[in-house]
Specification:
The chain is α/β, with parallel strands linked by helices. The chain is built from eleven helices and eleven strands. The strands form three sheets. The chain has a six-stranded parallel β-sheet, sandwiched between helices. A three-stranded antiparallel β-sheet has the order 7-6-8. Strands 2-3 form a two-stranded antiparallel sheet. Strand 4, helix 7 and strand 5 form a beta-alpha-beta unit. Bound molecules: zinc ion. Zinc ion (ZN) binds next to loops.
């Protein structure tokens, strides 16, 4: 049964020249990057309060408790040694073969680019880019991590260097959203993987798809299963591994 589904997905891919991939946390967990939302809420003795992972990466937490924010961020959001998995590599190859036009991701780890993908719309930003709040100097991940102190400060002006990651309570980048929506609205095959499509704005994006086939690949059922032409209940890396064997 699963084999038949992989063959059908392969047929869709073969007949398409405008594939868009939309990926969620499940794409990264296959590279051993845990979904930060699965991190335990932290009981912070100093603050004497419980915080959920979502609260710990919110704009207000960042502003109120910068030291605790950066401690959580560095421990739970940055995986410096993570490597792209089969899904990342297969998607990069589809782009090189001129079949895939864009990857839209909710992940911040930069693994699609590490695999060779060029057109990547990172809805939630990236750990690889960090900006000084005051003088706007940019720092890559390595430079950011080498800034001394519990709160990373800009060597030029002394202000806080903030990761270019969209925190809770912050708005997504408008131009990234419009490019993502444009790519989806032009696609003839939309493959959605590693997301249960419950997190904003993922589910809403699918409404812009007007193409031929919508494929959902996820370990569990998703909020949009009814819309799909093909649902594969499996890990995204396994599916792409089997695809490559056809
Ligand atoms: Zn600065």
């Amino acid at each position: 049964m699963q084999n038949e589904k992989i063959k059908l997905l392969n047929n869709y891919i073969q007949e398409s020249n405008n594939i868009v991939f939309f990926g969620g946390a499940g794409v990264s967990t296959e590279s051993n990057i845990p979904d930060f939302r699965s991190a335990d809420g932290i009981f912070n003795k100093k603050l004497d309060k419980h915080f959920t992972p979502e609260q710990l990466v919110s704009h207000s937490f960042y502003q109120t408790y910068p030291k605790d924010f950066f401690e959580f961020y560095k421990k739970n959001m940055i995986y410096e040694n993570a490597k792209p998995n089969t899904a990342h590599l297969a998607l990069a190859r589809l782009e090189r073969d001129k079949k895939l036009k864009a990857v839209i991701t909710q992940n911040i780890d930069g693994l699609h680019q590490a695999a060779g993908s060029k057109t990547v719309y990172e809805l939630h930003g990236s750990i690889h880019s960090n900006t000084c709040e005051l003088c706007k100097e940019k720092f890559n991940l390595k430079e950011f991590l080498s800034l001394p102190g519990d709160i990373p400060k800009c060597p030029n002006c002394g202000a806080i260097v903030k990761p270019d990651v969209v925190l809770y309570e912050e708005a997504l980048d408008e131009s990234t959203i419009s490019k993502a929506i444009e790519a989806i609205s032009k696609a003839d095959l939309l493959i959605v993987g590693g997301t249960s499509l419950l997190v904003y704005p993922a589910a809403g994006f699918l409404n812009y798809f007007k193409g031929k086939h919508l494929v959902l690949i996820n370990k569990t059922s998703t909020a949009m299963d009814k819309m799909a032409d093909l649902i594969i209940t499996d890990s995204i890396a396994c599916v792409f591994k089997e695809l490559l064997n056809i």
